Amino acid sequence: MKNKRLLGIIVALALVVGGSLVYSSLTKQETKTETANKTAKVGVLQFVSHPSLDLIYQGIQDGLAEEGYKGDQVKIDFMNSEGDQSKVATMSKQLVANGNDVVVGIATPAAQGLASATKDLPVIMAAITDPIGANLVQNLEKPGGNITGVSDHNPAEQQVELIKTLTPDVKTVGALYSSSEDNSKSQVEEFKAYAEKAGLKVETFAVPSTNEIASTVNVMTGKVDAIWVPIDNTIASAFSTVVSSNQTAKKPIYPSATAMVEAGGLASVVVDQHDLGVATGKMIAKVLKGEKPADTPVNVFSTGKSVINKKVAQELGITIPESVLKEAGQVIE
């Protein structure tokens, strides 16, 4: 009798354990299915409207699509502060409050705004030139917090080499940048170090806003042989003013974005903005799939291709060597 009772207890326990395992397996499968079918919500804050930043946003969408986040699989909550710092703060808080799974900052001020708005929600940087200098991460390999992303490190050394090659008579270069953008300051310091090592003198001209660009350019063209512009959202948003203010002096302008070369710059060495966006989109996908920003190294793009504006070169009486044209990533006729 005792043996039968013991056998019954064992059978009952086996049934309970087996049922639990089956239930657990089914629950996990249901969870996986729910996760796979869930629409990912991605909040995106773009600092200002500009062709370069627009390309990054398009690249983000393409990168997400390549990882399977397209159509009903993703909902993008997009906002643009149009260069207004007060809107950056307001929109950052709104994107965090909207229930997004991850938020993305296109350009340094946007990423900084989102970083201030949340310490818990994953924040992905898109095209941040100096993440450490902007106090977004402490280490590129091990970010350690809720922030990671993609950095477009300005290829300053390549730009100096291009200036020396195309305009060998240039002795003094004026660096035009915004005093309100942290990453611009670090770029200028790096560019100045490479330029001075190459025998060039660098004069710096900082502007607090777009309102001072015209007057600053008028002053600097009387003191320098060429103008260099870092990756700077303020200057980029009003680059037409830089070009128009230089019409009389006709000094060669070396910006740091393809769109600015197309808009009147002579040449530059640039990192492809669409590629940056695609890499950002793929990093967003990794985080959506479970990777932690703290353990995800910042993806740094540090080399670029030259972009040459032959029309501007002709207007300035500059002959572009055939070797430079052959190696260029883009030649604007």
From TrEMBL:
Entry-linked InterPro entries: ABC_SBP_TrpX-like (IPR047776), ABC_transpt-TYRBP-like (IPR007487), Peripla_BP_I (IPR028082)
Full protein name: Tryptophan ABC transporter substrate-binding protein
